[in-house]
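# step 3/5: fold
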Amino acid sequence: MDMSVESAVSTALAMQSMKVAQDAQMLVLKRSLDSQVAALGGLIQAIPQMPQLATQGTLGTNVNTFA
């Protein structure tokens, strides 16, 4: 396989250019995911808290089930 120097340099430059573009795309994706995590954190904080279940006494501490 006979490969000229110009062809090898051209291929190397094209691969380097693709790597730079891929790195930029990954950075955009990471920033997008980080902003989604921040937005989701705000939504989770907005969910009202459930009331505490009864742990003592006769009301609400037993479940009667029949199979």
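# step 4/5: annotate
Residues 5-46 form the longest helix (42 residues).
# step 5/5: archive (pending)
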